[in-house]
Structures are given as C-alpha cells and as structure tokens.
Amino acid sequence: MHRLYTFGLIILASLIFTLAACRGANTTSFPTTSNSDNAPPALYGYEIVNVYPHDPHAYTQGLLYDNGFLYESTGQHGESSLRKVELQTGKVIQRRDIDQIYFAEGLALLQGKLFQLTWQDNKGFIYDLETFAPQGEFTYSGEGWGLTHDGSSLIMSDGSNELRFLDPSTFRVERTIRVYEKENRLSELNELEYVKGEIFANIWQQDRVARIDPESGKLLGMIEMKGLLPDQDRLPNTDVLNGIAYDPSQDRLFVTGKYWPKLFEIKLNKKR
Predict the structure, then answer these.
(1) 159 pLDDT above the threshold of 60
(2) Fewer CB atoms inside 10 A, N or C side of the chain?
(3) Cβ–Cβ < 8 Å for 173, 166
(4) pLDDT tens per residue, range 33-66
C-alpha cells in the first residue's frame, strides 16, 4: 500500500510539473523582455515566417495593419501618399496622393482616424479610415518622423532619442521619454509600432529595431535585422529598413524597407 501511495505521489508531481511547464512556455512570436532596472537589454534575432510582395516604388515612412489590410505612408516630395494595401498581393487598393510640397512621414490609426506626419513642415493630417477623406490638420514643433499609439495617446518620434506622447484631440504634449543605449543617447528613432505594451522603433540607417519601455524609456531589447532583404533583391535605389506593423489578432509582426520589393512576416528569437 505504501509503495502504491508513493508511486501515486510521483505521478501526481510529474503531472503538476508538466502542466506548469506548459503554462510557462512562450508560444508567442515575441519573447518577453525584462523591465528590471538592472537587467541589460536583451538581444534578438529573427526567423522569416512569410514573404509578401511590396511596391518597390514605395518609400515607406509609416506602416500599420488593421482588419486584414496594411496602411502605408510613403515619403519624398512629389511621391508622398497614403495607401491601403492587400497583404497577400501587395496591391494598392486605395490611395490618396499628398501635395508635392509635403514629405509624408509616420502613420497611426486611432479612434477610427488615420494620423499622418510630415517631415519638416510642422504639420500633420487626419483622414477618415474608410474613405481617406480629410478630417483636419494638426501642428507640432520640430520634425515629424514616426508615429504610433498606446490606445489613448499618439506617440511621436522626431529623429532624436526622445518620444513624445500627444493628446489625440488637442495634440498637446502630455509627456516625453528619452531612450539611451548604455550611456549614449539612442538617437534617430524612426518608424514606430506599439506591440504588447512596448514601443518598437526602427533606428534610421541601421538594421536594428529597439524595444522600448513606454513608461520610462528604458531600452528593453534590440532586434538585429541584418540580412533580412537578400542581396539579389536589392536594386540601385533600395534604401534602408523602415516599416513595422503588428497584427494583434494573429500575433504577427511585419517589417519592410524604403523601396523594398518585399515585406516580411517574422518571428523573433532571443539570443541573449
């Protein structure tokens, strides 16, 4: 009887351990980061899950995903636009060209409206999500680079190491965070995406994406993206990595670049 009882306890303990391990397993595409004050930034690599066509004439400045479609802001004077794009085909199914005097930048979708920045004109535009009809304009100081939101505030980059949180109704700056890598300012934060309570930020002219704590500005992790676009797909005008979009319904992360012919769905792998 004692042996049977002991054996039963062993079986029960094994089952409990297995269930606990299953609960703790990370099944998401995004390994978690540590927000401990003393924890160094984690380092991530990537795995390509899917590859989709992307317009090689699109100078990608802002990118987001909503309800089965990508929405994209493209830059350059005379080329700037707002687009709705089919993910599977890369086909532009809706487009609004921006006045050639403006160089369009970051893009965010909040409260059923699209918000689009311009680079050096201190002006942003608001559009209806369905029709792209203009709904208003707003102003800000400094340059406009990337734009995303946390569900209540717009989050804007300006090419420095600062991120501004804006009230989406008044566009008043609510607060500012500053991002550092070790002792140095992590400047040229560019296209932004809010992913599971973190801010993902392209670093301009680098094949790296920073993972940032939106409360403190702490650098939580760095994603190394070198080699994502193969050399054989690069053309003379192919430019830098830029463009991050997240699909929360299926836990998918998409990235592309300026004048890239491809858009990638990736999964992150923690290296350190």
Answers:
(1) yes
(2) N
(3) yes
(4) 656 666 789 999 999 999 999 999 999 999 999 9
Three-class secondary structure of residue 38 per DSSP? coil
Q: Range of 112's domain?
A: 34-270
Answer yes or no: is 212 within a domain. Answer: yes
Distance CA 7, CA 29 (A): 39
What does the mean pLDDT of the chain come to? 89
Amino acid in position 104 = A
pTM recorded for the entire structure = 0.86
Is the residue at 4 inside a domain? no
What distance in Å separates the CA atoms of residue 93 and residue 90, rounded to the nearest whole number? 9
| Domain membership flag for residue 7 | no
Instruction: Answer whether residue 28 shows pLDDT above 50.
Output: no
Compute the distance between CA of residue 244 and CA of residue 222 in angstroms, rounded to an integer.
Answer: 14
Q: What is the CATH number of the domain that holds 88?
A: 2.120.10.30
- Residue 47 vs residues 30, 42, 259: alpha-carbon distances, Å: 11, 17, 22
Structural domain count of the chain: 1
Tokens of 156: 């804007």
As a dihedral over the C-alpha atoms of residue 181, residue 162, residue 259, residue 124, rounded to 10 degrees, the angle is 170
In a domain, 182, yes or no: yes
- Comparing 14-23, 76-85, 125-134, 154-163, the range with the smallest average pLDDT is 14-23
Residue 9 has pLDDT above 60, yes or no: no
**Helix H or strand E segment including 22:** helix 2-24
